[in-house]
Amino acid sequence: MLDCIFGYPSFGVVTPSRRSGGSIVAVVAESVFSGVFSGSALPVRLTATGASDGDAVHWILVPFGDTDPTAAQVRNGQASGGGIPADSGSGAWPDPFSATLVSGIARADYKVVVVIDNGALSNVAVSGAVEVDTVAPALSSGTGADNAGDLDWGVTSIEASGTIHAAMRLSGDPVLSAASIIDGTGNVVDTDADATPTANAANGGTFMAPAPGSYVVDMVQQDSYGNRSAVVSSPDVVIAAPGPLVEDDFEAYADGISLDSTANWDIAFKKSAKAANGNAVAASSSKHGAVWSPAVSFGSDFYAEITDADPGGNYVGILLFYQDTDNYYRLTYNAAGTLSFRARIAGSWENVTNAASPITPGGSDTIRLAWDGGEMVACHNGTEQFRLTPATIPSAGKIGLMLRDEGDRIGKFIGDDL
Question: Which CATH entry fits the domain spanning 139-239: 2.60.40.4070, 1.10.10.1450, 1.10.150.530, 2.40.10.170?
Fold first, then answer.
């Protein structure tokens, strides 16, 4: 609902006698000036000659192109010909007064038509054109979706005006009010807006990387005249915790795909055959290794990890900074429970280091080799076993895994930033 302010006092006007020869002298309405309709008010300035305190001021709002009504019609709240105006009201001279414009006045140019009644009707005074709109926008089809860890929201509007505001809240929290959505107050996790809405089309935006959780997006549109739509909401949107940068679950390959036939692996040493239950290899006197072939942009500190690891045949292992068969860093875990690190630099071994005591293999262990602050860190089942600074500091290379003999098994390979 929007306020219309009338009745500014006349200025620099001499008010003559109200009576002449016993008759009431009608006021002369001189001018009506309409300011810019904005927010909640249409400012109107009315000047007149002969008006006195308490004289009734009657007004109507009609489309600018309509024929001007008679003074009697304005007094009676009618448009020309006795029709119904867009709105009408009355007040008293000279104090400003407020009348609430009815909702549903479509956006268009209108004029304010005024008469003053002091017992006799004044002439009709008419303002210039002023654009008015009290029709609230309408939103529908609120949507929300997880987009690789971002939350995309969308909504359809009937009006291409103003701004569509969106506020994200936790699922289960109460629906936000329009004011809370616009101001970002209350149970608001984050806010966003579409300042260029399109009518009868999809509008929206994106909340960047919210924390994992379940959310709802509440939306409201406020047009350029302050009219607000009803609040609409998206369905619940679940943002899952981000997965690792590299992950391959070998046991998911029930059809027995071999490592070197998948798109993500290159053979580092010798072809490793894929058994139906994990990554076993055929009996051989030569080690088997594979490296992750797609480009991965790790941070300065990262790790590679094998889970459900079983060195039942000889050993399983991890490769870091693999460049070729003569340059890489490896951590192996053998059937005797020995966790061993060594670096192969220009075809020679460096930094041969074993854990202080053997670990009893459990048949489904987790082994990790991390590059952390310039040190190699070896872990077994989440517990650090040792760390060291390599004699030759690595610069670049790929991550990968190793299996030695038949019976060695790895269930999953993971690589990610620390």
Answer: 2.60.40.4070
pLDDT at position 96 is 61
Q: What is the mean pLDDT of the chain?
A: 84
| 95 vs 318, higher pLDDT | 318
Q: Is there a shared CATH topology between the 2-132 domain and the 139-239 domain?
A: yes
- What is the pTM (predicted TM-score) of this model? 0.62
CA gap 410, 414 in Å, rounded: 11
> pLDDT band at 280, cuts 50/70/90?
very low
| CA dist 153 → 137, 138, 169, 212, 371 (Å) | 18, 17, 13, 16, 39
Give the Cα separation of 273 and 124 in Å (integer). 97
Listing DSSP states for 270-325 in one string gives: S-----SSS------SS-EEEEE-S-----SSEEEEEEEEEESSSEEEEEEEEEET
Token pair recorded at residue 79: 């448009």
User: In this structure, which CATH number among 3.40.50.2300, 3.30.420.340, 2.60.120.560, 3.40.50.620 belongs to the domain 246-417?
Assistant: 2.60.120.560
Q: How confident is the model at residue 101 (pLDDT cuts 50, 70, 90)?
A: confident
Residue 200 phi, psi (nearest 5) = 55, 40
Tokens found for residue 72: 């009697």
| CA–CA separation, 259 and 277 (whole Å) | 13
Q: Determine the Cα–Cα distance for residues 396 and 415; give it in Å rounded to an integer.
A: 15
Per DSSP bridges, beta strands 339-345 and 348-354 are antiparallel
Q: Looking at residue 28, what DSSP letter applies?
A: E
Average pLDDT over every residue of 162-172: 97
Q: Where are the alpha helices (DSSP H) in 44-169?
A: 71-75
Q: Can you give the residue ranges of every domain in the chain?
A: 2-132, 139-239, 246-417
Torsion of CA 70, 72, 73, 74, to 10 degrees: 90
